[in-house]
User: Which sequence fits this backbone?
């Protein structure tokens, strides 16, 4: 089978190239059809042409399961650098119906969106439906976002320069209790546990700020001592384009830079800088042959202080130590003073503080632990060839494209060690404190070596060749067909196998007078992850379309300017869910080391990694979708919507519950369980977008809404539960599981009369759970579905609004998501043991506050009863965001009279300005990482 | 122009044809299959090594923190969570099922295949001897895993019969029927005995080179050479399973079966248990074989002995042990905070109170001389050997550790890594380890898998039950003599009046159980011993708060949320649900 496949593959290639050779030798310059007749001529007007798999087609001919946005038209009114920002408000189904990891193609090549800025992009196509993705083969099974970059256009010679400066202001910081308040609440927690108070009155009093703050510290990691009010971002870029019928070019250079919020030590040197260069050339070599080249380079550098400031800030209590100790406070004897001279000082006259438990801390780290840099270099190259074979056969053409990408990333660090000083306090006779001696822990050491790590290289080769035939017969029978071969190989550091994709594609389109459409697109896919027996599979898809507005019964009607129905269905084989190679085969390997004779003799255990299942094959996406797309009221309103039903089955897993528990162990890792095509998911839903344009005198208005609603269901799961309500099958794929709470236990009597909760000792003020199976015991068996995940909430969408009045344009973008929820379980919300106390503890349960408490009783123990997945901690992530607002002023032409500039825009924007949500505070708060920010930007666009 | 085009096409072609095979089929990973063991002896032996790697005694579990001996200061410690109410069939930190049956699967595989393995291509009958050795190790390890399975999972089902676990002696495949019912406890014990008998028939007493071919066991003497015999059964194999070790496990299994929790479902008698332990002790000369420094085998005091260990040789206290390895792991976990440790295992007041006075009398004896306001004076020296009390010195610099309230970070509950009971663990730590990051020093450690002291205590316990405190059976020494020797080694000068005053099996039992608690503390025995003896498992763990003015306030630190059915551990929930295997009552 493999040989046959390779045979077909090569035959296809030879066919392609032999015809191509003919094309060259037989070129007859006299056979030139006029532009109008040539259906193969490449269109240039993006308003009507859409990039789809391996070709461009007229917008009116696209299926409704394809959406498109001409990004370049938005950038002047909605300047941004990340092209997917707020996209859910502009394009229906922008999340590709949320089936899984999407494939992003840049000019047809798998590349990261993060290697591109918005102003490099011409158009983004969302290939959602099964028929639209089929030609891309196995890798495209979760949908494709096809990004087309800008190219030069004949006859346009222009240059645009953008300059931006902006500030990022944190939305909110976590609120932690100060030293004295922490101690008070900690004492309360101790009492709750039946223990004695730990902090004496007097101690708390000392820490409450009345005494010396170096002796009795109260450190706030979020104070202005350590953080700026905002950080800056700057960017500038310029593009140039021009050309004629023979040759066209496009070039762009961009630069951006930002700093960080830390305002001390190495924090002041933190920042990110990015430089990118892009260039493309299109050449008409002769009347039949065109060639193009695109190149892009990105140079990305960032630098951060060592030590994880944001994570550590959520961990270290305010009272443990003073991070900086003023030298002035050290009295001591002569010996102490002379020693003091040799100690390393920071920030003027301070020593780094700490104690034996905190030999390092984030503040000292930022001063003295050094820094690390991350460097990334991207190089992307694409070369293509389009040959018109009409001398051979009218309508026949050949297209070939090869891309080579290379990227190299690495991290360098300067890692220093430092001493910390523990003050030993004493008091003078008049009661003032001073530092008598300093204990020194650790030592200052600057090895001066640069450590290199995280080296990651990525080499990619991608090619596709296709032979196209496009012909219109009698102007009503429009036929197009494609024969395709595509392949891809990526080599990544640390991976033995190359990541590969390869497939043959075949497509046949027919439409009758642009009224009735038929499309067949299929792929013969080849996966290196499967055994030879199942390595090749065929994925067929069909689509039908009907342009109703061209029909006699509607063409007379003024109601519909455009109305099209489409339906498609098919099966796509995919290996995306197979995460390794040779999984069909049994595998024994030498793994864990064992030694005896005190390590003199060593050998390795032979362990099984999986059982054998030679029948392991592709997972399948099976889908049917229908869509409608139309325009009414003289194109003032246009709309588009799709409905889809997708079943993904045969998802390969090791179904552990079908075997005894000892068929799989942790170290040394063992599994005797084979991979089987076991799990199944169902996805259904709809997406829509609707735009309204109006012109009222000088005022031009555009209002649009878009959204996607997806419901999912796990149909088959590897699971084993006693009670049906625990089965994941039958529930959403992203279901959140946990116990259902029933408030707090109010007293011991309440506990005694309730089912026994088996998560540790229960006291009044602990969370009471519902006994789902009525067995009188609360344990894991009482967990039910409590919500749906927040990632890809069932509904995502938004609204956009543009108002243009004379030279002033306002753009507003709102986004929203509904139906999702999340268990907020990080250390900020789950406070127990000796965790740092956040503001949530103020609402904790005590005998006195039992009627108003919204947080369980505090505990210094593990609190395992309360701090577990339950709907007590589940919060809805429903939200509406004012994601973007931009005001653009176009300086009137008369100001420059075309001398200096062709045009000049000045714009001011705010990003992530307002969030409306029930749980706004929680949703806007980042714990243990840099805060979410609002971004205010001022920019200028100059056109030359 | 055309030239350029041709060039482009050539480049495209070159790329495609060079890449074709690459992208159509995966690179070979040299994946191996089970049949590869036949011609690769190391690959075959690798199956057997699974047994060694998965032994539950390769490290210390410190499940003592789920007993009345200790608590953990780690909120997330699984044994702590188990003891405080989370123990269930779904959540069983003392589960042996998965690891033991996975090992047995590998051992059954090697037993099924070993005759087909080409173990050696040279030497006289070396292939056969290697084959015998592999069988001996596999049968022996299978018996050991069965012992740990019984300890953790045997129990009474709802039918009132004492059940063991399923006996599986063939390798399972993905097509096997997994509904294998539990055998009775007695059947399991007999399976252990028969596996041990087979192992003993294949293995030498010790892996030591023999100097003279006359010392080669009879069955090999005429068919091999001295060097070939030593190649298979010589010292290079030390620390792997021997007849001596297997005999030790036989004694442990018999002690388990004779114990109150299991005796009704087993035919094993106390005399059997005593004799099986006695057989091992006879190999070291009985009571005279008790290692004089055996109670500090791990410590700085024995540094030269530990540092000198090489090639698997055993100190006199040790029957079976792991490799020595140089590290700071146990100290990092258990040193007090001021010595840069995490203070994890905190001995309880309950355990401290179990140490007698230096004169051998229990502290609650009116004549003991115990002073509650000076509780650590004149105590059994083992108290200071195994536990850090307030004001004691510890660590490389013998720093004074204050567990009293608020004085240092070592003070009770002061920070997350402070003790919760007023005590830190000293046993098993090498105090010449220095954790100061500015001058870290690691030291050699090993884990004693089986100590002779354990077997002496097993003998004393069984002999006392079988023949009374002063009955000697066939081994020539009595329970009282064993206890006297152990107490003498501990520093309680003999004869001690308290030991002499003991009369009758019952009094002696209490003393033996207490000695076992002290001698084997923190080594993972207490949790199972309490269950085997059917003693109180839910005594709250107590600690002491020592105030600045030296008041000693004893209070409960952590309750033990154990129910009566928890004398026997649960079977994994999924196994019961999936295959209909009988669960132990109550779970």
Assistant:
């Amino acid at each position: 089978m493999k040989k046959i496949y390779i045979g077909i593959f090569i035959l296809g290639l030879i066919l392609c190239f032999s015809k191509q050779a003919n094309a060259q030798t037989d070129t007859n310059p006299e056979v030139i059809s006029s532009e109008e007749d040539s259906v193969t001529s490449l269109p240039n007007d993006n308003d009507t042409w859409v990039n789809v798999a391996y070709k461009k087609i007229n917008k009116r001919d696209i299926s409704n399961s394809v959406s498109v946005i001409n990004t370049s038209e938005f950038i002047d009114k909605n300047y941004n650098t990340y092209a997917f920002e707020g996209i859910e408000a502009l394009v229906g189904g922008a999340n590709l119906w949320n089936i899984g990891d999407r494939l992003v193609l840049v000019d047809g090549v798998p590349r990261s969106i993060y290697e591109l800025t918005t102003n490099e992009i011409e158009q983004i196509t969302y290939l959602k439906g099964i028929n639209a993705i089929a030609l891309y083969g196995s890798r495209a099974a979760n949908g494709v976002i096809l990004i087309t970059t800008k190219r030069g256009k004949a006859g346009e010679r222009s240059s645009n320069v953008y300059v931006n400066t902006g500030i990022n202001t944190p939305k909110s910081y976590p609120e932690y209790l100060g030293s004295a308040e922490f101690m008070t609440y900690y004492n309360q927690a101790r009492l709750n546990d039946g223990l004695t108070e730990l902090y004496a009155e007097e101690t708390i009093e000392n820490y409450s700020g009345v005494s010396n703050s170096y002796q009795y510290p109260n450190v706030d990691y979020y104070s202005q001592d350590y953080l700026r009010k905002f950080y800056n971002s700057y960017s500038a870029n310029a593009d140039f384009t021009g050309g004629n019928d023979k040759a066209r070019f496009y070039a762009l250079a961009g630069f951006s830079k930002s700093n960080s919020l830390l305002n001390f030590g190495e924090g002041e040197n933190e920042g990110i800088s990015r430089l990118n260069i892009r260039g493309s050339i299109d050449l008409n070599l002769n009347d039949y042959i065109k060639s193009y080249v695109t190149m892009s380079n990105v140079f990305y550098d960032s630098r951060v202080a060592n030590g994880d400031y944001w994570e550590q800030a959520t961990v270290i209590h305010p009272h443990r130590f003073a991070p900086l100790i003023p030298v002035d406070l050290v009295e001591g004897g002569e010996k102490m003073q002379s020693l003091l001279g040799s100690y390393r000082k920071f920030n003027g006259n301070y020593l780094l503080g700490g104690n034996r438990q905190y030999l390092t801390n984030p503040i000292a780290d930022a001063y003295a632990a050094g820094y690390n840099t991350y460097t990334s270099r991207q190089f992307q190259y694409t070369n293509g060839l389009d040959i018109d074979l009409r001398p051979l056969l009218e309508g026949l053409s050949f297209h070939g494209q090869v891309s080579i990408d290379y990227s190299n990333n690495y991290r360098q660090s300067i890692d220093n060690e430092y001493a910390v000083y523990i003050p030993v306090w004493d008091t003078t006779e008049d009661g003032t404190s001073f530092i008598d001696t300093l204990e020194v822990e650790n030592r200052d050491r600057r090895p001066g070596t640069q450590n290199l790590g995280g080296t990651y290289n990525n080499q990619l080769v991608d090619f596709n060749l296709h032979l196209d035939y496009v012909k219109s017969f009698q102007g009503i029978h429009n036929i197009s067909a494609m024969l395709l071969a595509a392949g891809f190989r990526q080599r990544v550091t640390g991976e033995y196998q190359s990541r590969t994709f390869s497939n043959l594609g075949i497509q046949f389109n027919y439409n009758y007078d642009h009224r009735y459409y038929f499309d067949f697109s299929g792929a013969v896919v080849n996966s290196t992850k499967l055994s030879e027996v199942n390595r090749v599979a065929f994925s067929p898809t069909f689509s039908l379309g009907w342009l109703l507005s061209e029909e006699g019964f509607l063409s007379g009607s003024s109601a519909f300017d455009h109305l099209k129905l489409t339906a498609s269905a098919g099966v796509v084989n995919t290996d995306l869910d197979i995460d390794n190679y040779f999984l069909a085969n049994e595998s024994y390997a030498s793994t864990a080391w064992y030694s005896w004779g005190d390590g003199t003799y060593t050998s390795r255990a032979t362990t099984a990694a999986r059982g054998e299942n030679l029948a392991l094959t592709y997972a399948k996406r099976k889908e049917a979708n229908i869509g409608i797309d139309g325009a009414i009221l003289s194109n003032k309103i246009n709309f588009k919507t799709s409905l889809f039903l997708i079943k993904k089955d045969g998802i390969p897993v090791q179904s552990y519950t079908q075997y005894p528990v000892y068929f799989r162990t942790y170290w040394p890792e063992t599994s005797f369980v084979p991979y089987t095509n076991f799990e199944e998911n169902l996805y259904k839903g709809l997406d829509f977008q609707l735009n309204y344009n109006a012109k009222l005198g000088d005022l031009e208005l555009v209002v649009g809404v878009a959204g996607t609603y997806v419901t999912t269901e796990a149909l088959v799961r590897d699971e084993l539960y006693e009670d049906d309500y625990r089965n994941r099958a039958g529930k959403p794929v992203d279901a959140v599981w946990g116990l259902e709470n029933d408030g707090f236990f109010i007293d011991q009597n309440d506990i005694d009369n309730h089912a026994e909760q088996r998560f540790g000792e229960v006291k009044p003020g602990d969370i009471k759970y519902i006994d789902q199976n009525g067995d009188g015991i609360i344990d894991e068996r009482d967990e039910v579905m409590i919500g749906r995940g927040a990632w890809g909430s069932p509904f995502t969408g938004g609204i956009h609004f543009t108002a243009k009045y004379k030279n002033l344009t306002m753009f507003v973008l709102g986004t929203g998501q509904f139906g999702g929820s999340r268990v907020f379980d990080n250390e900020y919300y789950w406070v127990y043991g000796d965790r740092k106390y956040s503001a949530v503890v103020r609402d904790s349960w005590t005998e006195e506050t039992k009627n108003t408490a919204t947080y369980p009783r505090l505990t210094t123990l593990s609190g395992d009863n309360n701090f577990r997945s339950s709907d007590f901690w589940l919060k809805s992530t429903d939200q509406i965001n004012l994601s973007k607002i931009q005001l653009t002023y176009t300086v009137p032409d008369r100001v420059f009279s075309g001398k200096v500039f062709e045009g000049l825009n000045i714009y001011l924007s705010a990003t992530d300005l307002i969030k409306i949500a029930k749980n706004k505070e929680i949703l806007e708060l980042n714990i243990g990482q840099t805060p979410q920010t609002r971004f205010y930007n001022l920019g200028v666009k100059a056109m030359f | 122009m055309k030239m350029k085009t041709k060039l482009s096409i050539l480049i495209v072609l070159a790329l495609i044809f060079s890449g074709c095979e690459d992208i159509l089929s995966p690179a070979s990973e040299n994946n191996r299959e089970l049949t590869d063991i036949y011609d690769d002896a190391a690959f075959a032996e690798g199956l057997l090594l699974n047994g060694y790697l998965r032994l539950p005694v390769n490290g210390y579990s410190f499940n003592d923190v789920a007993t009345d001996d200790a608590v953990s200061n780690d909120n997330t410690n699984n044994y702590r969570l188990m003891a405080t109410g989370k123990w269930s069939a779904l959540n069983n930190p003392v589960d042996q099922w998965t690891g033991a049956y996975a090992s047995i699967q590998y051992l059954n595989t090697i037993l099924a295949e070993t005759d087909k393995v080409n173990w050696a291509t040279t030497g006289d009958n070396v292939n056969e001897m290697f084959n015998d050795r592999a069988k001996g190790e596999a049968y022996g390890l299978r018996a050991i895993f069965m012992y740990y399975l019984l300890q953790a999972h045997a129990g009474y089902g709802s039918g009132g019969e004492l059940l063991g676990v399923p006996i599986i002696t063939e390798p399972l495949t993905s097509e096997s029927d997994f509904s294998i019912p539990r055998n009775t406890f007695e059947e399991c014990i007999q399976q252990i005995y028969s596996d041990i008998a087979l192992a003993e028939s294949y293995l030498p007493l010790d892996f030591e080179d023999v100097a003279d071919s006359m010392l080669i066991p009879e069955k090999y003497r005429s068919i091999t050479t001295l060097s070939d015999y030593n190649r298979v059964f010589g010292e290079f194999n030390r620390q792997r399973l021997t007849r001596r070790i297997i005999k030790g496990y036989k004694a442990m299994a018999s002690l388990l079966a004779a114990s109150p929790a299991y005796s009704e479902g087993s035919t094993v008698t106390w005399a059997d248990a005593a004799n099986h332990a006695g057989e091992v002790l006879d190999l070291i000369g009985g009571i005279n074989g008790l290692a004089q420094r055996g109670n500090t085998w791990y410590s700085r005091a024995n540094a030269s002995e530990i540092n000198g260990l090489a090639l698997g040789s055993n100190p006199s206290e040790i029957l079976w042990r792991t490799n020595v390895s140089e590290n700071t792991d146990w100290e990092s976990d258990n040193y007090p905070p001021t010595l840069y440790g995490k203070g994890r295992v905190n001995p309880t007041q309950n355990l401290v109170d179990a140490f007698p006075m230096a004169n051998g009398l229990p502290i609650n004896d009116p004549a003991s001389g115990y002073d509650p306001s000076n509780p650590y004076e004149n105590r059994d020296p083992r108290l200071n050997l195994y536990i850090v009390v307030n004001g004691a010195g510890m660590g490389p610099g013998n720093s004074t550790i204050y567990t009293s309230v608020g004085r240092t970070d070592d003070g009770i509950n002061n920070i997350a890594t402070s003790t919760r009971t007023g005590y830190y663990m000293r046993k098993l730590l090498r105090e010449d380890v220095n954790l100061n990051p500015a001058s870290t020093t690691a030291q050699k450690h090993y884990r004693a898998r089986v100590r002779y002291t354990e077997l002496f205590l097993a003998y004393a316990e069984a002999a006392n039950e079988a023949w009374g405190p002063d009955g000697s059976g066939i081994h020539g020494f009595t329970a009282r003599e064993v206890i006297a020797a152990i107490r003498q080694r501990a520093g309680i000068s003999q004869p001690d009046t308290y030991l002499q005053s003991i009369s009758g099996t019952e009094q002696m039992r209490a003393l033996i159980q207490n000695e076992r608690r002290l001698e084997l503390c923190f080594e993972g025995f207490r949790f199972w011993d309490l269950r085997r003896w059917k003693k109180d498992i839910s005594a709250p763990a107590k600690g002491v708060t020592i105030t600045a003015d030296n008041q000693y306030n004893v209070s409960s630190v952590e309750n033990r949320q154990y129910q009566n059915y928890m004398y026997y551990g649960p079977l994994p929930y999924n196994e019961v649900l999936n295959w209909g295997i009988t669960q132990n009552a109550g779970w």
Remarks:
- Chain A is about 10% helix and 45% strand.
- The two ends of chain A are 59 Å apart (CA to CA).
